[in-house]
């Protein structure tokens, strides 16, 4: 058994209706966030992560939309979601149990370089969000379980290193940046304004003026470009900022205020909706 300096202890939390989530940060992988959860009713609203989202369902099924494409997946499917890609998720008829990790660009590139023995140029990315690959899904679940159960240091690290390299070898690609257009530049301006002013109460008229579009045009163009509404994007940014503040140990009520939420209950509801866990569980992991 390795000691707690190699892997932070998992925070487990029973949820409503028999739902359950276990969350931890694995220091062997740069504090990579890890989650295993069982959900019967919990549905994730559209959101995105700064990191990759990589995982697999062990039981049941999830109905997810990634970049606007909707699909129901279950055991044998991988979740390979690139950073900043908007997605959601809702349980199928019988709920689901799944396992996820959230490695950043640099961490994933370092893993690939370690395993491959050569430099990886550019940022790794994935071709498809929900590929069917029973072999690698099972290997990922095994490696994830080894981390959660605090297997020996060598076993835990080796299995996750190998499966992440194998996943990229089979499903990795490079993403070409989209060509800029006048409309794309306008909605990016609005997106950047929301990111920079997340703690303030921004109105639609103000945002449309920043973008240089009408209010109706802004909503349509923003959703077409990012698969999320401006308000949902702002809430997502606030939750991201809250995560960073909670990791510094700030009080939950203070974080709620500093991130622009109406109150702590409002903050907790949105945080759990997007992460599957409460602010307290996240901070204490």
Structural write-up:
With 285 residues, this protein is an alpha+beta fold. Helix content is 44%, strand content 23%. The strands form two sheets. Strands 1, 2, 3, 4, 5, 6, 7 and 8 form an eight-stranded antiparallel beta sheet that branches. It has a two-stranded antiparallel ribbon with strand order 9-10. It is globular, with a radius of gyration of 19 Å.
Give a short summary of the structure:
It is built from 10 helices and 10 strands.
Q: How large is the radius of gyration?
A: 19 Å
Task: Estimate the helix proportion, in percent.
Answer: 40-55%
Question: Quick check: average pLDDT?
Answer: 88
The rough form would be described as: globular
Largest sheet: 8 strands, antiparallel
Structural class: alpha+beta
Distance between the termini: 19 Å
Fraction of residues in β-strands: 15-25%
The number of helical segments is 10
Q: If you consult CATH, what is the topology of the largest domain?
A: Jelly Rolls
Summarize the helices and strands and which ones pair or pack.
Elements: E1 11-14, E2 20-26, E3 32-39, E4 44-47, E5 53-66, E6 69-73, E7 78-81, E8 87-102, H1 105-116, E9 125-126, H2 134-148, H3 153-171, E10 172-173, H4 182-196, H5 204-211, H6 215-226, H7 230-247, H8 252-258, H9 264-275, H10 279-284
Antiparallel strand pairs: 1-2, 2-3, 3-8, 4-8, 5-6, 5-7, 5-8, 9-10
């Amino acid at each position: 058994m390795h000691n707690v300096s190699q892997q932070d202890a998992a925070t487990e939390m029973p949820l409503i209706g028999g739902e359950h989530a276990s969350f931890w940060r694995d220091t062997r992988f740069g504090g990579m966030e890890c989650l295993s959860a069982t959900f019967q009713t919990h549905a994730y609203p559209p959101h995105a992560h700064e990191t990759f989202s990589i995982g697999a369902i062990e039981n049941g099924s999830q109905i997810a939309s990634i970049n606007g494409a909707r699909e129901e997946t279950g055991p044998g499917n991988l979740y390979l979601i690139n950073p900043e890609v908007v997605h959601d998720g809702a349980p199928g008829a019988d709920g689901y149990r799944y396992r996820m990790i959230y490695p950043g660009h640099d961490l994933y590139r370092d893993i690939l370089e370690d395993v491959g023995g050569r430099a990886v140029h550019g940022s790794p990315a994935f071709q498809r969000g929900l590929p069917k690959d029973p072999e690698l899904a099972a290997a990922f679940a095994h490696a994830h379980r080894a981390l959660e159960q605090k297997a020996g240091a060598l076993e835990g690290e080796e299995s996750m290193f190998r499966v992440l390299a194998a996943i990229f070898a089979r499903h990795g690609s490079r993403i070409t940046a989209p060509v800029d257009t006048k409309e794309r530049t306008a909605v990016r301006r609005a997106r950047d304004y929301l990111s920079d002013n997340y703690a303030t109460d921004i109105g639609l008229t103000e945002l449309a003026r920043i973008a240089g579009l009408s209010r109706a045009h802004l909503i349509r163009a923003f959703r077409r470009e990012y698969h999320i509404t401006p308000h949902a994007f702002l809430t997502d940014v606030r939750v991201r900022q809250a995560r960073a503040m909670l990791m510094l140990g700030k009080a939950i009520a203070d974080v709620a205020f500093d991130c622009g939420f109406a109150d702590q209950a409002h903050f907790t509801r949105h945080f759990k909706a997007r992460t599957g866990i409460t602010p307290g569980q996240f901070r204490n992991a």
